[in-house]
């Protein structure tokens, strides 16, 4: 059974994340969306809100679960017996950054990272862009899933 972890802060989940997750669901027997908790980071949305956004967005997907974790992603992967880490790439800068992490993770634990390119329609979207649109009361419909739009009101 192939199990993958898609880690992130998901503050909030975006249509770019949704794009990667939707395509990855068919590549793995089980996909765990893992919300990393970093106490030194300030989040726009509470952990509970972020969990709910993702659960609501993927409520009809049987092989997807949402969990939270602290510490190293590789340690979390070992705890839940995950075989792969999934990462989405929007641009060459993402690749360079993620490549170093993927190599380190493999050396630490032998866990491979699978990269999926975001679609051209969503490659420009980031959580920080979504937060900025929210801050200025902009239209999120082309950037975030329905759960985020409704939960932000």
TrEMBL record:
<keyword id="KW-0808">Transferase</keyword>
<dbReference type="Pfam" id="PF01467">
    <property type="entry name" value="CTP_transf_like"/>
</dbReference>
<comment type="function">
    <text>Reversibly transfers an adenylyl group from ATP to 4'-phosphopantetheine, yielding dephospho-CoA (dPCoA) and pyrophosphate.</text>
</comment>
<feature type="binding site">
    <location>
        <position position="9"/>
    </location>
    <ligand>
        <name>substrate</name>
    </ligand>
</feature>
<feature type="binding site">
    <location>
        <position position="98"/>
    </location>
    <ligand>
        <name>ATP</name>
    </ligand>
</feature>
<feature type="binding site">
    <location>
        <position position="17"/>
    </location>
    <ligand>
        <name>ATP</name>
    </ligand>
</feature>
<feature type="binding site">
    <location>
        <begin position="88"/>
        <end position="90"/>
    </location>
    <ligand>
        <name>ATP</name>
    </ligand>
</feature>
<feature type="binding site">
    <location>
        <position position="73"/>
    </location>
    <ligand>
        <name>substrate</name>
    </ligand>
</feature>
<dbReference type="InterPro" id="IPR004821">
    <property type="entry name" value="Cyt_trans-like"/>
</dbReference>
<dbReference type="InterPro" id="IPR001980">
    <property type="entry name" value="PPAT"/>
</dbReference>
<keyword id="KW-0460">Magnesium</keyword>
<dbReference type="GO" id="GO:0004595">
    <property type="term" value="F:pantetheine-phosphate adenylyltransferase activity"/>
</dbReference>
<dbReference type="InterPro" id="IPR014729">
    <property type="entry name" value="Rossmann-like_a/b/a_fold"/>
</dbReference>
<keyword id="KW-0547">Nucleotide-binding</keyword>
<feature type="binding site">
    <location>
        <begin position="9"/>
        <end position="10"/>
    </location>
    <ligand>
        <name>ATP</name>
    </ligand>
</feature>
<protein>
    <recommendedName>
        <fullName>Phosphopantetheine adenylyltransferase</fullName>
        <ecNumber>2.7.7.3</ecNumber>
    </recommendedName>
</protein>
<comment type="similarity">
    <text>Belongs to the bacterial CoaD family.</text>
</comment>
<keyword id="KW-0067">ATP-binding</keyword>
<comment type="pathway">
    <text>Cofactor biosynthesis; coenzyme A biosynthesis; CoA from (R)-pantothenate: step 4/5.</text>
</comment>
<feature type="site" description="Transition state stabilizer">
    <location>
        <position position="17"/>
    </location>
</feature>
<feature type="domain" description="Cytidyltransferase-like">
    <location>
        <begin position="5"/>
        <end position="132"/>
    </location>
</feature>
<feature type="binding site">
    <location>
        <position position="87"/>
    </location>
    <ligand>
        <name>substrate</name>
    </ligand>
</feature>
<keyword id="KW-0963">Cytoplasm</keyword>
<comment type="subunit">
    <text>Homohexamer.</text>
</comment>
<feature type="binding site">
    <location>
        <position position="41"/>
    </location>
    <ligand>
        <name>substrate</name>
    </ligand>
</feature>
<keyword id="KW-0548">Nucleotidyltransferase</keyword>
<keyword id="KW-0173">Coenzyme A biosynthesis</keyword>
<feature type="binding site">
    <location>
        <begin position="122"/>
        <end position="128"/>
    </location>
    <ligand>
        <name>ATP</name>
    </ligand>
</feature>
């Amino acid at each position: 059974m192939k199990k993958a972890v898609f880690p992130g802060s998901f503050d909030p989940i975006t249509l770019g994340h949704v794009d990667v997750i939707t395509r990855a669901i068919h590549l793995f027997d089980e996909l765990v969306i893992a919300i990393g908790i970093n106490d030194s980071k300030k989040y726009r949305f509470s952990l509970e809100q972020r969990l709910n956004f993702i659960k609501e967005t993927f409520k009809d997907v049987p092989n997807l679960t949402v969990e939270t974790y602290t510490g190293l992603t590789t340690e979390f992967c070992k705890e839940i017996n995950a075989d792969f880490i999934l990462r989405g790439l929007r641009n060459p800068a993402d690749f360079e950054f993620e490549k170093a992490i993927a190599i380190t993770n493999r050396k630490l634990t032998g866990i491979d990272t699978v990269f999926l390119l975001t679609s051209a329609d969503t490659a420009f979207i980031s959580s920080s862009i979504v937060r900025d649109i929210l801050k200025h009361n902009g239209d999120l419909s082309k950037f975030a899933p329905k759960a985020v739009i409704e939960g932000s009101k």
